[in-house]
Write a structure and sequence with these properties.
By secondary structure, the chain is α/β, with parallel strands linked by helices. It has a single domain, classed as Rossmann fold (3-Layer(aba) Sandwich). 36% of the residues lie in helices and 14% in strands. The protein has a 7-stranded mixed sheet with strand order 1-3-2-4-5-8-9, with helices on both faces. The protein has a two-stranded antiparallel ribbon with strand order 6-7. Helix 4 links the parallel strand 4 and strand 5. Helix 3 crosses helix 4 and helix 5 packs across helix 7. The protein is globular and about 50 Å long.
């Protein structure tokens, strides 16, 4: 059965208790569907929980969804120290290969995950048919840029900055439930900056169509960065959907249904596959 448009979806796809538990805990989960597939990549110090509303909507529309845990995540913040950005991409590349056989394969990413999605589309243009980029971390706010600069210092690279108020999401219930890491290693922020530089440099060579969504009140990344990425992607320029009431985690925040609506409309309008199913 081909994926349907969002207008044709009348009820959510039943989801097993084990999958719902994995979503709640921020662990890996997979939702069946077909023939098209979506790889969902979370952000730095985040978890798969931040993408679960989008995954449920995509699965209800007939898309197979895989949300893996990114390299260095799933444990303690200190586990991220020493993990290079290239390993984030390499792990996501292995996860993308798990979707082999799909008619079309899309990659949706939040923040760091959005940058990794762009890197995959650059490195594997024949494997990525479209990108859903939520709050891409191309440019951090001044506090984040300072953290990245400090993370390049040998003395502070192992330092972890606590998340005093939790994740950057306006919805208080979702913030309370989000099982993100409790702190941010400065070394990991430095690696995020290196990944952003790679994506900024290679974006003109990315031919895949893209949807770019940004939060109008994001405290983590800049709207200017999202707009720059939308302009520089080789398949663009693309418009940026700004969710005016949302913070950083747009797929989880107060306008998450509007975010999912836009993603479904984007996938419904995506061009046909350029090759046979892999």
């Amino acid at each position: 059965m081909a994926p349907t448009s969002r207008a044709e979806v009348t009820a959510p796809t039943p989801t097993s208790p084990a999958v719902l538990d994995a979503m709640a805990r921020g662990r890996e989960y997979e939702l069946p569907g077909g023939p098209d597939a979506v790889l969902l990549l979370h952000g730095l110090t985040g978890s798969t929980f931040e993408l679960h509303p989008l995954a449920l909507r995509l699965a209800a529309a007939g898309h197979r969804c895989l949300a893996p845990v990114m390299a260095g995540h799933g444990g303690a913040p200190a586990d991220l120290v020493g993990v290079p950005w290239t390993e984030w991409v390499a792990k996501a590349r292995r996860d993308l290969a798990r979707l082999a056989g799909a008619r079309r394969t899309f990659v949706a990413g939040c923040s760091m995950g959005a940058l990794v999605a762009c890197a995959l589309a650059h490195d594997l243009p024949g494997r990525v048919d479209g990108l859903i980029l939520l709050a891409p971390a191309l440019e951090l706010t001044p506090a984040g840029r300072l953290a990245g600069w400090l993370g390049r210092s040998g003395l502070l690279r192992r330092a972890v900055v606590p998340k005093g108020s939790g994740s950057d999401v306006r919805d208080e219930e979702m913030r309370r439930r989000n099982p993100c890491l409790p702190g941010v290693p400065l070394a990991a922020v430095a690696e995020l900056g290196r990944l952003a530089a790679f994506v900024d440099r290679t974006a003109p060579a990315v031919a895949a169509p893209a949807l770019v969504v940004a939060g109008g009140q994001d405290h983590t990344v800049t709207l200017a960065g999202a707009r720059r990425l939308a302009r520089r992607l080789g398949g663009g320029p693309f418009e940026v959907l700004v969710l005016e009431r949302s913070y950083h985690l747009v797929g989880l925040d107060v306008e998450r249904e509007r975010c999912a609506d836009a993603a479904l409309d984007f996938l419904a309008g995506a061009p046909p596959p350029r090759r046979s199913a892999r």
